[in-house]
UniProtKB/TrEMBL annotation:
Belongs to the LanC-like protein family. SUPFAM superfamilies: LanC-like. Pfam families: LANC_like. This is LanC-like protein GCR2. One of its GO terms (cellular component) is plasma membrane. GO terms for biological process: carbohydrate metabolic process; peptide modification. GO terms for molecular function: metal ion binding. It comes from the Eukaryota. The lineage of its organism: Eukaryota, Viridiplantae, Streptophyta, Embryophyta, Tracheophyta.
Length: 411
């Protein structure tokens, strides 16, 4: 088990120095982990921003610069839409119009590349292209382009054999609808458009759960997954943003209670129903993705049990979440969002410290550890979900924790 993650030897908590203390110090601060952790917050985030913008440039050069408009992988997950998502985040921080124009170009190329794609979700399909395209067009003040992307979005057809999960299924399409309604305006995608899909998700979940102990259940490739990417945690996360009937709300709550009740004794969550392998502490499988869902449940339902379970899952991430990978799907960057999310929910500054701990670990050590072969750079090393793109994105999200959101998962 221990070889999947680095032991967490970060100090349990460190107060930040004030700006005066930091600037009055005569000796230059060495670039080490504990020194980083004691910096005033804005000083630290300035360093994270410098690193992020540098990384962003490498990501653009590697994924877009050389290939120009020939897009092989258009997705947010491992493709150039992920690059656009990162560049758009950089634009929101720096307001550099060149970044916004680059986003428009990349999304346009993704639009052509995904035209005949049967993938429909935000993270791995065409909904992500059209939804992000609309939001970027809005920021660019281009009404015509905004209308175009919203129209393209509405023309997406869901194949009948589509699964239900976030990465490749109906939940991943519904999340894109919520994303548009949040960023473009209420009812951009009306609930009448989403309702039939919600019905399918609920009906199918009840059918597979038939007489089971969990009210809703789904299958993907023969497995009943629990996690955020392919399973229950992800589907419940999306359903909580839908207008649900009272009995549907009870089924969502019941499903979350089932997960909590049947988690491992370590506090971690199995990747699928019946699995006894307590190994994965990822957003995609395990406690991190479940934590984000439980934070959402605590916000939406206000029940203390979800808040408590979210905090308990967060403990697992703190202990076992310094993974030997950088990305946001199954790496340290993604696990950092667990603490940002718990911080926003509770206001407890220890969670912000933990988010700092993980991001400072990345800033201080990731590239060195990758170069030494002690950390895996990701199968797609510059991508948003598996590689350095995700690390840069996380650094930029550290600047203002109140607006930080796990890409494609937190609204
Ligand atoms: Zn993953």
């Amino acid at each position: 088990m221990a070889d999947r993650f680095f032991p967490n030897d970060l100090p349990p908590f460190m107060e930040e120095t004030t700006l005066e203390e930091a600037t009055s110090s005569q000796t230059p601060i060495p670039h080490s982990l504990t020194s980083l952790l004691s910096l005033p917050y804005t000083t630290l985030t300035s360093k994270l921003q410098v690193s992020a913008l540098h990384l962003k440039q490498s990501v653009v050069n590697e994924t877009w610069g050389s290939s120009g408009n020939r897009v092989k992988d258009y997705t947010l997950y491992t493709g150039v839409l992920g690059t656009a998502y990162l560049v758009f985040k950089a634009y929101q921080v720096t307001k550099n119009v060149d970044d916004l124009n680059l986003c428009l170009k990349i999304v346009k190329a993704c639009d052509s590349a995904s035209e005949n794609s049967s993938r429909v979700t935000f993270i791995c399909g065409r909904a992500g292209v059209c939804a992000l395209g609309a939001v970027i067009a809005k920021h660019a003040g281009d009404e015509r382009l905004l209308d175009y992307y919203v129209r393209q979005f509405k023309e997406i057809e869901l194949p009948c054999d589509l699964p239900y999960e976030v990465l490749y299924g109906r939940a991943g399409y519904l999340w894109a609808c919520s994303f548009l309604n949040k960023h473009i305006g209420k009812d951009t995608i009306p609930s009448t458009h989403m309702r039939p899909i919600v019905d399918e998700v609920i009906t199918s979940g009840r059918k597979l759960a038939h007489k089971g102990r969990c009210p809703l259940m789904y299958e993907w490739h023969g497995k009943k997954y629990w996690g955020a990417a392919h399973g229950l945690a992800g589907i419940m996360n999306v359903l909580m943003d839908m207008e649900l009937k009272p009995d549907e709300v009870e089924d969502v709550k019941g499903t979350l209670r089932y997960l909590i009740k049947n988690r491992f004794s370590s506090g971690n969550y199995p990747s699928s129903e019946g699995s006894e392998s307590d190994r994965l502490v990822h957003w995609c499988h395990g406690a991190p993705g479940v934590t984000l869902t439980l934070v959402k449940a605590a916000e939406v339902f206000g029940d203390k049990e979800f808040l408590q379970a979210a905090e308990e899952a967060g403990e697992v991430v703190w202990k076992r979440g310094l993974l030997k990978r950088v990305g946001i799907c199954h790496g340290v960057s993604g696990n950092t969002y667990v603490f940002l999310s718990l911080y926003r929910l509770t206001g407890n500054k220890e969670y912000l410290y933990r988010a700092k701990g993980f991001s400072c670990f990345l800033l201080d050590r990731a590239q060195k550890l990758i170069a030494e072969g002690k950390m895996h750079g990701g199968d797609r090393p510059y991508s948003l979900f598996e590689g350095l793109g995700g690390m840069a994105y996380t650094f930029l999200d550290m600047i203002d924790p109140q607006v930080a959101r796990f890409p494609g998962y937190e609204l």
